[in-house]
Each structure stands twice: as C-alpha cells, then as structure tokens.
Amino acid sequence: MDKNINKNGKIKIGLIGLGTVGSGVYKTLESFKNIEVVKIAVRNVNKKRNIPNLDESIITGDPYEVVNDPEIQIVVELIGGLNPAFDLIKTAIKNGKHIVTANKELLAKHGEELFTFAEEHNKVVLYEAAIAGGIPIIMPIKTILAGNKITRIEAILNGTTNYILTKMDMQGASYEQVLNEAQALGYAEADPTGDVEGFDAAYKITTLATLAFRKRIKIEDVYREGITKVRSEDMQAANDLGYKIKLIASAYLDEQGRADVRVHPMLVSKKSTLAHIDYVTNAVSLTGHPVGSVTLSGPGAGEFPTASSVVGDILAIAAELGTTDYLLPMMRCKHESDAEMIDILDTENKYYISINAQNNKGVIGTIGTICAQNDISLASIVQRCVSDDNTADITVITELVKEKNMRNAIKLIEQDGNKVNSLIRVQV
Known about the structure:
The strands form two sheets. Strands 7, 8, 9, 10, 11, 12, 13, 14, 15, 16 and 17 form an eleven-stranded mixed sheet that branches. Strands 3-2-1-4-5-6 form a six-stranded parallel sheet, with helices on both faces. The protein is α/β, with parallel strands linked by helices. The chain is built from 14 helices and 17 strands. The N and C termini lie far apart (51 Å). It has three domains: 11-133 and 303-331, 3-Layer(aba) Sandwich (Rossmann fold), CATH 3.40.50; 138-299, 2-Layer Sandwich (Dihydrodipicolinate Reductase, domain 2); 344-426, ACT domain (Alpha-Beta Plaits). The longest helix is centred in the last third of the chain and has 18 residues, at 303-320. The protein has helices spanning 20-29, 64-67, 85-94, 104-120, 129-132, 138-142, 159-171, 175-185, 193-196, 199-213, 232-240, 303-320, 363-373, 403-415; strands at residues 11-16, 35-41, 59-60, 74-77, 98-101, 125-126, 149-156, 223-224, 243-253, 259-269, 281-289, 292-299, 348-358, 378-386, 391-398, 401-402, 419-426. Helix 1 packs across helix 12, helix 3 packs parallel to helix 4 and helix 13 runs antiparallel to helix 14 (403-415).
C-alpha cells in the first residue's frame, strides 16, 4: 500500500503551473486540512501572484523538482501542451506519483501511451478538468453511467467560440468585430487559432468519445472545422429558419459500432437545449441506453470552475491513498481496441447553403437540377434579396445527403458562375 504520508498526516501535493487554474486549485486546497501543497513549479518565479499568504519558499522554476521530490504523492499538471508536460508526467509516474491533469491536447495525442504507462506502474491519471472545465462528466460516465451503452454525444466544449457566436447572434456583428472585442475582454487569446479553428474542441471530443464508446479514437481521424467562415448573414438566416449556429463537437456510434467523431459549426434547432447554451457556458448531451438523453451544462473554464474539477480528482485519489494496492479501478483506462472510423465523406448530413448568384431567369431551377443530379433532395430553397449588382442571395436547406455528393454539387454550382458563401451542416 502507498504509505508515503508525511509526519503530520497530510498528503503532499506538487503543482506544475500557477496560472489561472493553478491559483484556483491552490486557494481551494487551503481549506482541506489533510492536504498540503509542498512544491509549485512556475515559468516566472518573480511574477507577483494574487494569492494571499503564499509561501514563496515552495516555488521553483524547475518542474523536475516537483516530479522528482520523493515525498510528493500527487502531481497536478496545469501547464498544458505536449512539451515538457508529457515527459514531466511520465517521470512523475515512474517516481511513484499519481497524476491529475487538465491537459486536453496531451490526452488526445498521447493518451493511449500515457494510460498504458500509468497502468504498468500501477498509478492513476485523472483528468476531469480536461474536457469541460467545471462540468462533472468523466467521473459520471465512469461510475453512475457505467451501465449505459452511450451512442451519441453532442457538446459545446469551447467557451471562446461559443462567446463569439453568441455575440454575433445578439449584435448582428461580423466574426472579426466580435473576435476583436473578445480579445480585448480576455475571452480570446492574442492568437485564437486553437479555439476558433476547432482544435481545442477536437482534443476534448477525442478523449470524451474514447471514454464514452470504450474504444480508442485517434485525433487524426477527427474531422475539424472552425468558425472563422461563419457570417452575420448566416446568423440571421439561421434565426429565420428556426435555428442557432453553434460550434458542435459530436460523436456518434452506428449500429455496426463504427464511430463518426467531428467538430464543426452547426445549425441547431431552437427546440434543442444546446441552442440556448450561450456565451462561455459549456454543455454536454449524452444519449445512451437505458438512460435516454442527459445534458450537463455549466462553466467550461475559469479559475474556480476548473479548480473544482481538479480538486475533485485530487480528493478522489487522496481518499484511497494508504487503503488499497490498486486505487480507483473504475476510473482507470481499459480500452483495448481502436474504433473503426467513418470518413466525413461517407457521412450523411443535412446542409444549409448560402449562394450568391446572378439574378437570371432559371437560376433557382439550375441549382435544383445540379442538386438532383447529385442525389440531393431540397427541404427548402429561398431567394432572399437582390443586390445592386443584380446578384441574388439564395438560401438552401437540404434533406439528408452524403457529404461526398454535397461537395461535388458545390463544385458544379460554383462552376456555373455562382459563389457559395457558406456551407454549414444542420442538426438532425
């Protein structure tokens, strides 16, 4: 059993990272008398911290001091990215420490290797904070929902993009205008690529789908599309049609057990719960048997919401230290096979298409003919307005159609001298 508890009976914690989340974790842990943070690694040891009574003597600029400290039992990694986080965590595991991390990129890209390595050393890696900030989702899937066969996930997993899309919707503003505002307010990074191009949400849905489907999902097989091409005109058209546009991370398991995992903008029906998840709030909807559908929503980021998940993981490990030789068996990763993936080209979707076309006789008929030739049935086709240059904006909503057919039709529509401004999938 793990008896590495110090003389005053407290469990020793080492933190790597004391940014927004790390500060929240430190402040939260102060109220737990059985836990002591004994070492904290930071990038800049001279930076002033907004943490009352912080003992400066436990701060180091070398994270290897944390993972190599023989008295530390739990290492909490909150720096993100692949390097040096991956090597730090492996070193900590090798040195007999359990791990709590919020590192979604590391889990998505090297989760299989990391969990295998942890199991070989009989250590636990917990990562509740890596998926949806303060929303409890990992432990519920592993425990209370363990008896379910989950077949569908639809989620809003990135607060920055949800904030931008909500503001575009509310203000009728362009993507660029709202992005600049979000950056000024600190909701978006100076380089927002990871958020607005869908990378952050893709990392999260990769790990979430792996967990829920009990099969490994490879990040390179996850289709990803960001929000940079969404226009204020699309927002207005979506509203008129009874939808909201959201960046949706989704995962679906078909009857043959094949997985379709992706991130892209989507027209979500106003009747759907996800349509009303606004600003920086996150939400995860799970569908499975026997539970049916469950939606959890809450803050997906921030100092204390994310700290809530991190501290919950710390306490879960702390409660079992010294009581068993095999901690938290239900929380361990036991995926033995890779999921068979469905290529995006072979998926069936409904689509919203915005086309700018010359206002000539028969233009709608021509678009309809191209669609028919590609086995595309139209739910609606509307000419919205005619501009001064005699071009018309045409909005199309399709029925279910193969992605490869849709892409071919778009090429033909554009070859006919029209411009396709937007192609956004519609929630089915």
